[in-house]
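Q: Protein A?
A:
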Amino acid sequence: MHVILFLIICLTLVNGNCNFPSKETQVLQDKMKNWGIYKKIYSVTSQTSTYQIGICLSLNNSISDTAILQKEKNESFILGQVNQSNLIGTDQWLLLTYKNGSQYKNICNNKTRSAWIIFICGQTLGRITVIEETCNYVFEFQLPGLCSSMPVTKKSMSGSAIFFIILLCLASSYLIGGFFYMRIKHGARGIDQIPNLDMWRQIGNFIAEKCPFCRFCQTNTSQTGYLFQDTGADLHGDDDILAP
């Protein structure tokens, strides 16, 4: 009887898993099971180390509840225990924490190692990126299952943009319709095809009178020939033009 009990305890240690008592955490745990990552082992290599990561599962050939094992040159370090885990999150992210790993010696305040696995939306299942590995170990785990719960942002135009588009359509309709009306109905040609041309000229003259910066620039270049106004007669007589 004692032998059977001892074997059961050993099997439990080798195949340890997370224990989340709260109902909220159990809901997240069930999601991990549905996504197919629960009790799976993954590996990732950084520039200095190789990591074996168990998702709520102790590593193979482990005599304890080792959740993450770091192999650096000829040394190995435990980054956390499965029975010292915590899981929090929302519909958009999850955070799995392992604590009580190997203790530092003469660095990092001699504390025990801990690791954080951040599950985010990603298209490649199980793609792990090492974010931090100095005193604190942080891993980023891509999970397509989180992408389906990401809010879809609908791009909509602002009210000013809609008003500008409506104004542009009305102006285009006014110009094109007036152009054909003046051309077909009155036989206008050239600039006379613009609808309400006299009105636009008056508006332009009014703006030019009220705004001194809008007046035409005068140049020092002398003009040859006759100088006329639109409504007036010749400003200079022939005598003035021919005078030396």
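Q: Protein B?
A:
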Amino acid sequence: MVQIKEFRIVMPMSMEEYEIGLSYTIMKMEQQNTNSKEGVEVVQQVPFEDEKLGKGQFTSKAYHLQSKIPSWMKGFASASALTVHEESWCAFPKSRTVIKCPLFSKCSLTIDTVNRPDNGCSENVHNLSSEQLAAREVEIIDIASMSRDYWSKVIGAPKVDLTTFKSQRTERGPLLKGWMDSCRPVMTTYKLVIMDAPIWGLGERLEDCVIAGERALFLACNRLCFAWIDEWYGMTVEQIREMERQTDMLLKKTLKKAGSKHEGKKKTLKDEIAAVGSCT
């Protein structure tokens, strides 16, 4: 059975700020989850133009994150079969992401995203049919909430408490009860997850597992986007695109490293990118 779940994540920032902040957050999370044994491989990044989405950037990635795969799934598949392939067409404020896994070739997972300058009150931003609306389940995610489910532990959910956090550069926060109704600026990212796993005896369990994983990822990513606001606030789109190019090089370099460990002062994403840039 096809599952349709819409997640609405309200953010205490403007649309323009979110475009920058989300890109920075994704880059930093990928860098933190990549080492000599596993991680994120950026396969391709090129401009695209589409009648529905408009002009934007196409990105193809491969996720070699076998350590984060549930144990029950590892029992009947090789590591290579569990590599996740992602294709994303991003034309802010809209995007579409298609995720595939060789082991589950019959399954389909799409994530359609629409960003709006509101607090999650838009009811059909994805222009769903009456049948789809009847099947859709909606959940509003509060980034100030803490989650302790299985996937949050696997992803490494951020421990920052946004109910006490206050940005030094923007003076936004803390996010107290009712903040989504009173916060300015404010915007919402509407993520429509459609999952179909037509596998007898396993399909429903797999669909529930994947959707729960996506929810945990959405929460962690957007929590960090606000928690790291003082790192990316004031950056331009041009600066972000250059960081993406340098991050691509950094990830490829890290995945190719021998398994040696380095100790010393912990580096920021900008420090790591600067080091790679000096070698080019």
